[in-house]
Amino acid sequence: MGTPRLDTCVPMPIEQEELEALVDKAKDWALMHGAGMRPMDAYDADGMRFAPFVLLPSTFPKSEFDRAVQLQVVINELFHKVAHCHEFLLESLRSTLEVDPFTAKLFNLYETIRREGTAQKLSLGLIRSDLMLESGCPLLGKCSAYCCWKQVEVNTIASGFGWLGPISSGIHRYVLSEMGYQEKLKHLPDNNALQGLCSGMLKAWEIYGQPKAVILFVVEPVTYNICDQRFHEFEIRRLNPSVKVVRKTLTQLAEQARLEKDKRLIVGKDEVAVVYYRSGYKPDDYPSEIEWDARLLIEKSRAIKCPTIQYHLAGTKKVQQALALPGVLEKFLPDASKAGHVQKIFTGLYSLDMDELGEKAVKMALSEPEKFVLKPQREGGGNNVYGKDITDVLGKIQNSKERSAYILMDRIIPPVQLNYMLRPGRGNAMYEPVDVVSELGIYGVVIGDESTIIENKQVGHMLRTKLASANEGGVAAGWGALDSPYLF
């Protein structure tokens, strides 16, 4: 038996003349409506290409989509509580801190804040829970291509695609309409992710209580995924024209930011109410100590952070693996129903610590590497290890504490379906239908402190799709494509 398949939303393949016209129109529509990125192979601040996308929306079961949407507020609650539990963060990350300098640096910053204190107890979480349909489940029925969805990871910092998710649905509404399938548009769910995420930032801005204060975006020195970031700025201005957004790198903040005696964060002449990180999640974002100093300065301030350092740590792979251990969820979700629903979405997650369980996980991975994914404590795509490469990487470190910097996860085998994948730079090349798989992300907003959650809601979704033969699926990193769900 091959990998189970899902039916496409329209008959395939599309007749060639119609396909060529559709592709030309769809590429222009995408570019002219903000589904764009700056070219990574030849950066040009004045240049723009359409972001890779699939021509048709990918089918996704409505029952599983609805379940993911409903569960997001529980995911928000869980990670908010985890972020505020020092004992759990320390115990979960203890072995990783010995061998992963970057995570250790983040944790040292966290401990410094705990020791010296912060002027702002509130946290703003803009969270994205990523999931895939599971087709490799032993309970899978003969008449279905999937059994359920499983969680890939939870993102607590720089959870992107708040704009590119909704605009993908716009592309597909246009394409289906051009093909004469207006009756199918009702199967494309509404997606207000951009408005929801920006409303979360504005809610935090309102709580801060200074009408002239700004929202600070911490960004990379060079931003390729510019539309996704800028549309957040534009939406904030649309929702509240009096709110100003300022973009700065950590290096610029090291030179321009300061704390007043009352711990107000000042950048240039502006007081900062909310700090939103679109950078700061990987080692390259800290080329020297001054960037770490800037991060510490921000953490000490009265500004409301998205995320705080403890929220950043809560999103590490090691913490997520620890949450899957028996009896752990109940510590944070005493409601047995909530804990049970979350437990069902976990796939196998295994520690690689230097103990009996770690040894067992290493043996599993080395004997059947195709069944697993090896994950380091990194965000941003392109960091995971698959298949034969697991044998190479883990084989070198299996007797070293260095393996504790990784976790092992069961590989999810999603159902495949046909689609056309459009990438810039192909000109008039012929497009053929290809097998693809998809990953759904659900967004949540949560605001609160250690004892109280002020706001908790689900606000939208995104879908990324990649070739079924590919391992990674990040669009900004060049492996995946924009997509939207067609609910059946």
Automatic annotation (TrEMBL):
GO terms for cellular component: cytosol. Pathway: Sulfur metabolism; glutathione biosynthesis; glutathione from L-cysteine and L-glutamate: step 2/2. It comes from the Eukaryota. Binds 1 Mg(2+) ion per subunit. It catalyses: gamma-L-glutamyl-(2S)-2-aminobutanoate + glycine + ATP = ophthalmate + ADP + phosphate + H(+); gamma-L-glutamyl-L-cysteine + glycine + ATP = glutathione + ADP + phosphate + H(+). Substrate binds at residues 229, 464. Mg(2+) binds at residue 379. Homodimer. Belongs to the eukaryotic GSH synthase family. This is Glutathione synthetase.
